[in-house]
Amino acid sequence: MADRLIVKGAREHNLRGVDLDLPRDSLIVFTGLSGSGKSSLAFDTIFAEGQRRYVESLSAYARQFLGQMDKPDVDFIEGLSPAVSIDQKSTNRNPRSTVGTITEVYDYLRLLYARAGTPHCPICGERIARQTPQQIVDQVLVLPEGTRFLVLAPVVRTRKGEFADLFDKLNAQGYSRVRVDGVVHPLADPPKLKKQEKHDIEVVVDRLTVKAAAKQRLTDSVETALNLADGIVVLEFPDDHDEHGHPREQRFSEKLACPNGHPLAVDDLEPRSFSFNSPYGACPECVGLGIRKEVDPDLVVPDPDRTLAEGAVAPWSAGHTAEYFTRMMAGLGEELGFDVDTPWRQLPAKARKAILEGSDHQVHVRYRNRYGRTRSYYADFEGVLAFLQRKMEQTESEQMKERYEGFMRDVPCPVCEGTRLKPEILAVTLAAGERGAKSIAEVCELSISDCSDFLNALTLGAREQAIAGQVLKEIQSRLGFLLDVGLEYLSLSRAAATLSGGEAQRIRLATQIGSGLVGVLYVLDEPSIGLHQRDNRRLIETLTRLRALGNTLIVVEHDEDTIAHADWIVDIGPGAGEHGGQIVHSGTYRELLRNQNSITGAYLSGRESIATPTRRRPVDRKRQLTVVGAREHNLRGIDVSFPLGVLTSVTGVSGSGKSTLVNDILAAVLANRLNSARQVPGRHTRVTGLDHLDKLVRVDQSPIGRTPRSNPATYTGVFDKIRTLFAATTEAKVRGYQPGRFSFNVKGGRCEACTGDGTIKIEMNFLPDVYVPCEVCQGARYNRETLEVHYKGKTISEVLDMSIEEAAEFFEPISGIHRYLRTLVDVGLGYVRLGQPAPTLSGGEAQRVKLASELQKRSTGRTIYILDEPTTGLHFDDIRKLLNVINGLVDKGNTVIVIEHNLDVIKTSDWIVDMGPEGGAEGGTVVAEGTPEDVAAVPESYTGKFLAEVVGAGRAPARAPRRRRKVSA
């Protein structure tokens, strides 16, 4: 049946022989609890088989160059198309990749500027152009008749040398005069030039007067000069002088040349000339990166209240050299009149400048030797900035480089100012009427919406329009798709490495739509992640458009709007892990709402819900963190306060500045102060209120491990305690086994046949590699002797094979182990196996393993937790469990700050900081702050509009009588 996609007997991971019948050319949503088997069915079964079949259809020669998927554990799949996966894990970290390059818009822009751009001189700004000999002659003949001029061929331009051989050669060719450094000499008696001085030499090709009869002679002379001087000719008018009294000159060129004679380093404009990844276009200073490392004085002196003796200058405050540098600064102090026991803030400006930048003359340094005698010497005082820059360039140690980079910040390249391109390339512009003329770098700096408007307004001549018409159509098409997926706030120059997982996925989605493929199976992983509710509608329209082209879309998603707009919904469950892997529902949205066995249906229909709190925690105005003068990226020098001891949600549309404020500034400052980290915070004035906290815990979206050797037991550290417990058994003591014996990562206790993997990889050349259980250990990972040690009747391998819930019960008497496992159960991971390989965990599971790893640490009541979209990959029911854990932390006096779009989390928060109003350049301010009810009442807040629908129903929760006052700098 060509109109159906049929799956029979899918058993990958926890799937229990799933049979599925899906409509093709439809938008299909896979939903269910985290860990229920959605990704196993969508990615590891359907996509993997579609990709594998396509690759197998190619020749054996082609297959060896392509990564092949393993054959999934499924009986058969029918009606399968070539498959394309769009997930969130493959974000490009190459510093040379930008939004423009990965969407290919920049490739078309390079073509547009190369063919239709107007080049200018980067020095004087005059328009430059190439001219044919006939065009040059025509320009000369329009001068008044009788005008006298010399035709000169510039053969040497500002070069050192004597050039005697050149004079002899020109004389032999029949030329009689040459102009050297502005003075005409006969070639029969040329001047003696100094070898070490720079000279200008022009051959006098002809002396002419403007008249119609001289046209042929003028043409011949111009062509001769162009051939002699590599495409350049200069005319000198002896009867017409400039303001300095020198004869006026006019320069012409067959190549791109400045009319004022400024030297240019560009010949023909080609698309490669506009590439910062090519030596033809890249800025020579930063080789196309646009940035360089530069020492930041704020990082060198992180605490201005410290004295020099206490280590105010951080690079000179640690290690065995600290005393030496303190003596050097004391010597400088004698010269400039300051003391090393003076706080940095109170030092005179001259002293601070000398310490940072160095002293012009030597300082007198005194010290006591080991015999107590005073000794002295004179030494140069280099200055800490130059010291760090020099050490950075000299060291070959990666560890030391990392240390020195901790005092440096990425700053725009001083030559290209961050644009990555040569000055000559930046002087090529396109004009758009009232919007003015812009270079390719300026266009890429615009937001995508402004970029689209600028290109629509281009004023091109008939010739340029004929050349650029098709190119502009391709550019606008791709920009339109980026706008459709809610990325209008991004710029084409935005580095790919700075994109969130959701942004990167939506860019790939827009690129796929731009490809215009038909009959393809697209498998997407939560495309709504990182997207505000306001932008959800456009994303759904984009998915619908992709389907309308004649494609099948399988979307793994928890978003209510996306589920409601799907043609077909597959709910997988009923539980997670061992309790999941079955089809609970396969049908329409209306049928799902009526399905009594579906947890998803229960939440969507309102039978189950996450309740809005009836009372919110009071906010103490005396206990708060305040970021003053935040101005990194698009933040506009804002002051933002975060109350302590409550749950705060930072909200706002994509690109409004949430991550910059919380991750780049606040979290970095907290990590440096509380966790002794060496991070470079985003630009800000100061952060106050740090004294109320003693520990920072961050949980972000990065994976917990990329190898099968990493698992929940190893990541959380509980495996160390389990190995110690096994080593303490009587049998282990008799045999002399240490905890290391029970590790599958080192020799001794592991099975050496499979080196502790439990499986053997068999390479099949042109077929996918096959993994089979190790014949020696039968997949147990350990050797026979190690497996003879038991704890309560279980081997170490059997313990790793337990579910976390089962293991928590098994180790209940051992409080040190039980606490770890109980925390994993509390965050909803009881179904996961203790030794489950990290790569098989879903994104939501991996993030909760990290959260549990931090939660099990003893809380002091003064800990701040920063969570970046913790609901990623979570079902409604998983979110309820997560909120229980988060509220438990806050109830103990801790502070939790979450960056979040999920309304269930936002409505249960005690405080909201809503950023906006838009993304990119139109964002970077605080639109609203306060309780959810306060924010819901702010008409300018997009978050407030959606929040009003969920907190407005029923009685508004009670809240503390204290009102939040405006924070001043």
UniProtKB/TrEMBL annotation:
<feature type="binding site">
    <location>
        <begin position="652"/>
        <end position="659"/>
    </location>
    <ligand>
        <name>ATP</name>
    </ligand>
</feature>
<keyword id="KW-0228">DNA excision</keyword>
<dbReference type="GO" id="GO:0003677">
    <property type="term" value="F:DNA binding"/>
</dbReference>
<dbReference type="InterPro" id="IPR041552">
    <property type="entry name" value="UvrA_DNA-bd"/>
</dbReference>
<dbReference type="GO" id="GO:0005737">
    <property type="term" value="C:cytoplasm"/>
</dbReference>
<comment type="similarity">
    <text>Belongs to the ABC transporter superfamily. UvrA family.</text>
</comment>
<dbReference type="InterPro" id="IPR027417">
    <property type="entry name" value="P-loop_NTPase"/>
</dbReference>
<dbReference type="GO" id="GO:0009380">
    <property type="term" value="C:excinuclease repair complex"/>
</dbReference>
<dbReference type="GO" id="GO:0008270">
    <property type="term" value="F:zinc ion binding"/>
</dbReference>
<protein>
    <recommendedName>
        <fullName>UvrABC system protein A</fullName>
    </recommendedName>
</protein>
<dbReference type="GO" id="GO:0016887">
    <property type="term" value="F:ATP hydrolysis activity"/>
</dbReference>
<keyword id="KW-0677">Repeat</keyword>
<dbReference type="InterPro" id="IPR004602">
    <property type="entry name" value="UvrA"/>
</dbReference>
<keyword id="KW-0067">ATP-binding</keyword>
<comment type="subunit">
    <text>Forms a heterotetramer with UvrB during the search for lesions.</text>
</comment>
<keyword id="KW-0227">DNA damage</keyword>
<dbReference type="GO" id="GO:0006289">
    <property type="term" value="P:nucleotide-excision repair"/>
</dbReference>
<dbReference type="GO" id="GO:0005524">
    <property type="term" value="F:ATP binding"/>
</dbReference>
<keyword id="KW-0547">Nucleotide-binding</keyword>
<dbReference type="InterPro" id="IPR003439">
    <property type="entry name" value="ABC_transporter-like_ATP-bd"/>
</dbReference>
<feature type="domain" description="ABC transporter">
    <location>
        <begin position="620"/>
        <end position="948"/>
    </location>
</feature>
<keyword id="KW-0267">Excision nuclease</keyword>
<keyword id="KW-0862">Zinc</keyword>
<dbReference type="GO" id="GO:0009432">
    <property type="term" value="P:SOS response"/>
</dbReference>
<dbReference type="Pfam" id="PF17755">
    <property type="entry name" value="UvrA_DNA-bind"/>
</dbReference>
<feature type="zinc finger region" description="C4-type">
    <location>
        <begin position="751"/>
        <end position="777"/>
    </location>
</feature>
<keyword id="KW-0479">Metal-binding</keyword>
<keyword id="KW-0234">DNA repair</keyword>
<dbReference type="GO" id="GO:0009381">
    <property type="term" value="F:excinuclease ABC activity"/>
</dbReference>
<dbReference type="Pfam" id="PF17760">
    <property type="entry name" value="UvrA_inter"/>
</dbReference>
<keyword id="KW-0238">DNA-binding</keyword>
<keyword id="KW-0963">Cytoplasm</keyword>
<keyword id="KW-0863">Zinc-finger</keyword>
<dbReference type="InterPro" id="IPR013815">
    <property type="entry name" value="ATP_grasp_subdomain_1"/>
</dbReference>
<dbReference type="InterPro" id="IPR017871">
    <property type="entry name" value="ABC_transporter-like_CS"/>
</dbReference>
<feature type="binding site">
    <location>
        <begin position="32"/>
        <end position="39"/>
    </location>
    <ligand>
        <name>ATP</name>
    </ligand>
</feature>
<keyword id="KW-0742">SOS response</keyword>
<dbReference type="InterPro" id="IPR041102">
    <property type="entry name" value="UvrA_inter"/>
</dbReference>
<comment type="function">
    <text>The UvrABC repair system catalyzes the recognition and processing of DNA lesions. UvrA is an ATPase and a DNA-binding protein. A damage recognition complex composed of 2 UvrA and 2 UvrB subunits scans DNA for abnormalities. When the presence of a lesion has been verified by UvrB, the UvrA molecules dissociate.</text>
</comment>
